[in-house]
# Entry
Amino acid sequence: MKRLLLGAASAMLVVASIAAPVSARDFGAAYVNDMVYRVLGNKANVPDGTGTDPFAIFTNSTNTDQIGVAEFAPGSAGGHHGGRWAVYRATWTSAGDSSMLVTSWTELQSLVNGGDITLTRDPAADFRCPVLGNPEPIA
# Structure
């Protein structure tokens, strides 16, 4: 009986290791259209400047809940390209409120247009990181 249990446990470990992506790692989450999506990173060659989907990383936010903001997620109108991110650095200006939580690209663009935030393209930071479905509402 012990042999049978040991064999079954070993088989489950092998299946689990094969089923999990070899180089994937959890990047946490990102905001897209006022929802929180889980993101998963994998090693992929993304040459500098070849990202296609806008992704903002905040440089000076004072809001501890602020995470990255992406323009697209699976099912978004306008074309999600599987998480090949074109990275932008979002920096609050002196006119903006760095404690504000930004949760959508539309909101981010509005703040940029109003002079509250500057967006600077950072092509050397482009990366691949799929955004997974089943988003959660912002708590």
Remarks:
- The chain has one domain: 23-137.
- Residues 23-137 form one domain.
